[in-house]
Amino acid sequence: MPVPLPAVVRMGLTAPRHWPTWVLVGLVRLLARLPFRWQAALGQALGRLGYLLAAERRQVARTNLAHCLPGHSAAERETLLREHFGWLGQAAVCQGLSWAASPRRLARIVRIRNREVIDGLLQAGRPVIVLVPHFVGLELGGTAFTALVHPGMYMYQRIRNPVIDAQVQAGRTRFGSIPVERQDDLRGLLRGLRRGTPFFYLPDQDAGRHRGIFVPFCGTPAATVPTLGRIARLAEAVVIPTFARFLPGGAGLELCFDPPLTDFPSGDPAADTARMNAVIEARLATMPAQYFWVHRRFKTRPPGAAPIYPPRRRRRRR
After folding, report:
1. Contact (Cβ atoms closer than 8 angstroms) between residue 101 and residue 35
2. φ/ψ (deg, to 5) at 134
3. Per-residue b or e along 194-211, where b marks 16 or more CB atoms closer than 10 Å to that residue's CB
4. HSE on the CB side for 165, CA within 13 Å?
5. What gap in Å lies between CA 112 and CA 110, rounded to an integer?
6. Could you report the per-residue pLDDT of 179-223, keeping only the tens digit for each?
7. Is the previous residue joined to 265 through a cis bond, with omega within 30 degrees of 0?
8. Phi and psi (nearest 5°) for 126?
9. What predicted TM-score, i.e. pTM, was given to this entire model?
10. Are the C-beta atoms of residues 261 and 242 closer than 8 Å to each other?
11. What is the three-state SS of 192-244?
12. Backbone φ/ψ region at 10: left (φ over 0), alpha (ψ -120 to 50), beta
C-alpha cells in the first residue's frame, strides 16, 4: 500500500530533498514484483556485497558473535557472519512485499507452522502477546501475520527518514494493525489486548540505562526492557514466542508459533526478563545466521564494565 498522495503533501514529503528516497522506495516496490526466488537470489548477492562494504556493521556483528557464540571457532563465526549479511540483503530486497504484496501472494510465500496454537487462544477471547525477536525475517513475517492470521498492535518507534517512516507505517497498517507509540498510555494497549487484539512485543533491542535492567543474553549482561511480565500480568495475557525464518534457496519464509510460556509471569521482573532472553537464545541456536547481529545489543554496559564495541567513526563535516 503506497502512502496516499494527500498525506504525502500534508506531511511535506514532496520537497526535492526527499526525491532520492522516493526513488529508493519506488525501486523496492518494483523489486516486489519479481518472483520470490529471484528476490532471494538478488538479496543474497547484495548482502554479500554489503559484507565487503559495511565495515563498521561487520565489526559490530563479529563482536556480537564472539560474545554470544564462544563455543564456535573463529572460522565458524566468520562463515555465519557472511551468511548473515546474505540474509540481511534478502530481507532488504523483500521489504517491498511487506508494503505491497496481496494476502494471496503472501500465503504462497509464507508457511505458517503451529497456527492452531494462536488460533485457539484468539477464538477463546484470550489476550495474547506475540513475542517476536529480531530475526531478519521479522518484517515479512509480521506482515503475513496481520494479513493471514489476525491484525495486531505493535510498538512503533519513528524512523528518522520521514519518507521511509511514512511508507513503513502505511505498509504495517494496511491490513488493520494499530501502531502504539512507546510513550503512549499503557491503558490503551491493555484495552486492546482485552478486546482480543494481539500485541507484537519486540524485546531484544538495547534498552539503555534508564529503561532497562541487566539480565544475561547468551552469557553477557544486556540492558533489556523488563515490561513483558508486567503487561502479561495486567492484561492476564498468554505469551506466545513467534519466529520468522527465511527458507534456503528462495523457498519462502516460515512463521512458527512456539507453545505458550507456562508459569509466566512469575511476579519477579528480573526473572521474567531473563526467561524471555533464554527463550530467544534457544531459538537463536537453531538459526544463528538469521539473528539481527548488526545491532549493538550490548551498547549499554553495567557500571564499571568496559565497552564491548569500538567507538563509532565520526563523519567529517564538509
Report:
1. no
2. -85, 75
3. eeebbbbbbbbbbbeeee
4. 13
5. 6
6. 887 666 788 899 999 999 999 999 888 888 888 999 999 999 999
7. yes
8. -80, 140
9. 0.92
10. no
11. HHHCCCCEEECCCCCCHHHHCEEEEECCEEEEECCCHHHHHHHHCCEEEEEEE
12. alpha
Is-contact 211 62, C-beta < 8 A?
A: no
In order of 25, 33, 167, 178, the CA distances from 236 in angstroms are 40, 42, 34, 20
For 70, the grid coordinates are 564462544
Say how far apart CA 36 and CA 109 lie, in whole Å. Answer: 7
Q: Is residue 63 packed enough to be buried (19+ CB in 10 Å), middle (13-18) or exposed (0-12)? A: middle
Contact, 131 vs 257, CB < 8 A? Answer: no
Please give the helix or strand (H or E) that residue 51 lies within, else none.
helix 36-53
Q: Residue 55 and residue 305: Cα distance in Å, rounded?
A: 25
